[in-house]
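User: My notes are a mess, but here's the protein and zinc ion's SMILES. Can you give me a structure?
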Amino acid sequence: MTDDCPFCAIVSGDAPASVVYETDDTIAFADIAPVTEGHTLVIPTAHSSGLAGLDPGTGGQLFRVGQEIAAALRASDVPTEGINLFLADGEIAGQEGLHVHLHVIPRTGDDGVTLGFERSEPGRDRLDTIADAVAAEL
Ligand SMILES: [Zn+2]
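Assistant: No problem, the inputs look usable. Here's the predicted complex:
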């Protein structure tokens, strides 16, 4: 826990949250500024600022809980035609806040949400080079 982390304050009970679900190592709660109604955050209860410091088992739990929240959203009265799971690791990737969090964002056809990805066509040789560079670090 860090003193200036709002998510750690939620974990400790020092800050309010609309809690959806808790496990031993995770807690899920309603995003205070939702992209769409039902937007939920899943966080590890132990502070970690990024993926590099996150226990891999806990990372697996984040995804499992994200799946469960997604299923619950689809079963609920919250309008949900699809789901985006989103995790930003690092400020340049769009991470806001110092504590790792997985967004579970319910989607509908008229929600107005856009994902601003542009795709490229690098060709097989470049794909192989990149794949080899990543594989060499595993
Ligand atoms: Zn924290």
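The longest strand covers residues 102-107.
User: Great, I'll file this with my notes.
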